[in-house]
Every structure is written in structure tokens, then in C-alpha cells.
Amino acid sequence: MNAGGDGVRRCWNMCLDKSDYFRRREVVDHYNRENRWKKKGLAITPVRFGIAFMKSYMNQGGALVHIYTDGSVLVTHGGTEMGQGLHTKVIQMASETLKIPMSLIHISETATNTVPNAMATGASVSTDLYGLAVKVACEALNKRLEPVKAKHPNAMWEEIIDAALRDGISLSATGFYKMPGLGFDINTLKGSPFAYFTFGAACTELQIDCLTGDHKLLRTDLVMDVGDSVNSAIDVGQIEGAFTQGYGFLLLEDIKVTPDGAHLTRGPGNYKIPSFGNIASEMNVYLVPDSPNPSGAFFSRVSFVGILIKLIDSSESEVMF
Fold this sequence. Notes:
Blueprint: H1 5-19, H2 21-34, E1 38-51, E2 60-67, E3 73-77, H3 86-98, E4 105-107, H4 126-151, H5 157-166, E5 172-178, E6 183-185, E7 190-192, E8 196-209, E9 215-225, H6 232-251, E10 282-287, E11 310-312, E12 318-320
Parallel strand pairs: 3-4, 9-10
Antiparallel strand pairs: 1-8, 2-3, 2-5, 6-7, 8-9, 11-12
Helix pairs in contact: 3-4
Organism: Plakobranchus ocellatus
InterPro entries: Ald_Oxase/xanthine_DH-like, AldOxase/xan_DH_MoCoBD2, AldOxase/xan_DH_Mopterin-bd_sf
Protein name: Xanthine dehydrogenase/oxidase
């Protein structure tokens, strides 16, 4: 499958430009020559992430959509909302497909008695799986409502639904979506393990105290290609959070286990995750414009961020994390 070299290159070039990398590289090098006990590091790195579960059967999602007599819509899908904005994006997709305001659409929490056999919510695929499953269900409802709309071309949404009910039209539909064309033969190295790739680049600058080892993030510039973003505010928040999570994993978090297997880092008291004091003094997020993704939900790409941080030691050699 196409590895998406153009997408990576576009993110890389945009990150070089937005971060003012080459000028800052000279400034950092000058700072390190002039200072013995404090050093700065500056690094830029690209990232590419394949979108799909590696077990191909897991790349499926279901949804259930009800329309009620007052025109309100209840959507249930198999994804788990954990603060990543999945429910909000699903509501937006239902609104776009049904051509009704988002205020009329409500989400019912995920439950196996409404949408059975749901797969895990992870691997950055849930927006595609469940958003497109909801789209399938809404399109089925649209098709049923076409004759009613033809008879009442000037009717409001609520009037159309009332007329459909009186005509005995079912106002409930299920939707199912499976990522097409997935399959990879490990022996022949042929096939497509992913639906598509998502791309990004990050440029990060930090300062380190060579005597104490203490460090501070000074600035990070993050560029992501999210296609035609369904909700750019959510995507920016996810990118910021993903960077911070990756930073914590690399430089702060340390799992400690005794020789006999006892876990010593069992809570925030002795397992340090990023807090407000660890956030970069300046954090900039840029979304690549005019980059529709025909393989994603509503031409979007899911967001995924990788980071690379370099520290400069007193001998000016770079230690890579």
C-alpha cells in the first residue's frame, strides 16, 4: 500500500517553517557554546501511524439510530467515550447526514443490549468505525424518508417525521461498517494492513540543568495532517494531550517493581505523570490545510502524535530519548 511519503514530507516542511527551526538551531548552538551548566536541546521528528487494528476482524463497528415523533434523534454506537470527543464527532456526523441541527441529536451510552459485539475503543480507529456505522444507519433512514419529503417539500423536519409515522414508516435503523480491503500476509509481505496512514511532525526545545538533571520544556510545535477535520477543536486538544502523554512516558514516568514482583509505583504519590508545571511554556498546534482523506470518515484522518526530545549534555553530544 502507499506509505504516504508526500504526507510526511508536507508535515515535515510545514513544521520546519512554523517552528523556525533553522534560525533557532543556530540560537541553541550559540547558547550551548556560551553556557557550561545549562544546555538546550532542539529536535524535530516526523511520525507516521497506520490506522487499523492488526487483527483485521476487529475493524468493524455497529450503530443504532432512533427518530422520535418530536423529531429528536437517539444514537447508540459501540465506541467508548473516554474524553476523546468520540460522542461529539458522532453527533456531528449524524447531523451532517440527516441534515438536522445537532441540538436534536442525543447519544445513549454504549451498552451491549443495543449494539452487541463491540470491539475495543483504541488504535485511533473509533471515529472511522462508529462514525461511518452511524452514517450508514442515517442514510437508511434518509432513504425511507425520501417519499415523505417528496410529498411535503416545504415541511419542517418535525412535520416530516410526523407524516412518516402516520404512513407507517420505520424510524429506527441499524448501521454496520467494516474497513474494506484489509489483509496482510506476513509470509509474502503483500496486502494492506492499514486503511490509511496519518502523518505529523513535532519540533521541541527544552533546557536542562547539567548539575541537577532538572529540565523544562520551552517550546513545542506540532503539525498534524487530520484531513478535513470533523472537529478541529477536539483534534487540537487530542494532539496537545497526546504530546504531553508521550512526554510523560519518556521523561517522567518510571515503573518500579521489586525483585519478587511487588509493584511499588501504584499511584500518583510515587508514579509521576505530567502536571501543569511540566507543560511547555509555548505549545503550538497546526493542522495541515486542504488535505482531504477519501478513506476516512467524512474525509478526515484520526490524530496520533509521536515526539522525540533531545537533551544536550555538557560535552555537547546529543542524548536521544
